[in-house]
Amino acid sequence: MSKIERLRLPDDDPAFGGNRIFDLFQYSPAVTANGLVFIAGQIGLRADGSVPESAAEQADVAFRRIAAVLGHLGLDFTDVVEMVSYHVDIGADLAGFRAVKEKYIRSEFPAWTILGVAALARPGLAVEIKVVAAVRDSK
């Protein structure tokens, strides 16, 4: 039987401002099971609740949120094995997204699925990123 662990963020987490959004919508920022970490889709939502106007800025905030979750688990982007990105205007925004992605994922490339969607959970959102990471073997 596998052990399942749900991440609870510190109340003063600078990327998220705590757990209020996770508590409100009743989900975890990440769940670890069977050696994999499933990180909930991250959007360009700043800790103060604001959303950047450009898709590239939103992608940067979303990647910083993913980095924060990975960091709480002792991981980084080299541990990411799968990424799914959701784009409201994929044609206009993909080049900017790729430029931002290259700041965070420079090697050890994950499998990546790119999806165009009609809308995301909140008006004004342009991109959402979901990742799966592998837990490092402890030695």
UniProtKB/TrEMBL annotation:
Gene3D superfamilies: RutC-like
InterPro entries: RutC-like_sf, YjgF/YER057c/UK114, YjgH-like
Family statement: Belongs to the RutC family.
Protein name listed in UniProt: RidA family protein
Organism (species): Achromobacter aegrifaciens
